[in-house]
Amino acid sequence: MEGVLGEGASPLAPITTLKNDFSKVFQYYLDKSTPLPVHRWIGTLVVIVVYLLRVYILQGFYIVTYALGIYILNLLIGFLSPKIDPELEALDGAELPTKETDEFRPFIRRLPEFKFWYAITKAFCVAFLMTFFSLFDVPVFWPILLCYWIVLFVLTMKRQIMHMIKYKYVPLNLGKQTYAGKKSGGNSPRD
């Protein structure tokens, strides 16, 4: 009866193999979705709507939704913040350009868009799974949580906007920047 599993074979080997295969397939599709931000965000919007419908239908899990809101607020701050904080870097002498003669430095986020999207999607999926366990359905008066979250959002965003104004950076870019150049009045071969 020796060797039913084979020499040195673990009883968890099929599970490990299945996990590795799933991980490879998941990473493949995640890599394929990288250049498609609009499609990714539409998929996330569907996940958000499904989660909100489930919470609305169940009339519960408000504490899970509140925790989810706090987590998303934290992600949003990372998404809107520069990778190198000018307040901390001012001590080292490196800072964002403030005059036209300063060197151009592109805005680099602390939390890139792809990681921002992935974290939000994963958070909504985890919160959705939590709605299947009554342990997480803590009875609370949800309007108080909503008011507190709104106050927290306003105060946090006010501080972030003041930081953006102080160091003159805009974290949102609406399309690819192009250089127009000078218009030539003569007969150039490009006309």
TrEMBL record:
Topology in the lipid bilayer: Multi-pass membrane protein
GO biological process entries: protein retention in ER lumen; retrograde vesicle-mediated transport, Golgi to endoplasmic reticulum
Coiled coil: none
Spans traversing the lipid bilayer: 38-57, 63-81, 140-157
Domain of life the protein comes from: Eukaryota
GO cellular component: endoplasmic reticulum; Golgi membrane
Pfam families tied to this protein: Rer1
Principal localisation: membrane
Keywords of the record: Membrane, Transmembrane, Transmembrane helix
UniProt entry tagged with the keyword Transmembrane helix: yes
Cellular compartment(s): Membrane
Matching PANTHER family: PROTEIN RER1
Family: Belongs to the RER1 family.
Free-text function comment from the UniProt entry: Involved in the retrieval of endoplasmic reticulum membrane proteins from the early Golgi compartment.
Name of the protein: Protein RER1
Record organism: Daucus carota subsp. sativus
